[in-house]
Amino acid sequence: MPDDNRFANIGVDDADDDEDAAPDAVDSATSADSATPADSATSGNSGSGEGADDADAPTVDPADAGPAFAFDDVKQRAVYPRPDAWDARTEALDFEVKRKLREHGVKDVTGRELDDAVARTVPDVTDRIVEHVLEARRRKFDSE
DSSP labels for 55-95? Predict the structure, then answer.
């Protein structure tokens, strides 16, 4: 668990070595599992004769895989949205995205996974981003 959460050892008594050994064993299994979905999906598609388009049949259940990556794999960045834009983002993630993930059996999605997914979506929606920036500037000048 320390690989996923840098605060996991806070308050843990160092004298209890048996409990410390168990999380390390879980960590190596968890990190192996987190690497498995990509490896399994790649090898599963090429070896089974199924097309790469068959995204509905993953070889690993995302609901059981845990977070997609460890906390230490991220770099925190600052963003500067206006409150209404941030509230809309939060509502969309909390009420739409998380609901749809629950439909797929994922109940433990982390904020870092959502932030990463949002960042990876940006290249797919560049035209919409340009539209929103231009629209905001037009409204600014219309109100002056």
Answer: TTS-SS-HHHH--SS-GGG---------HHHHHHHHHIIII
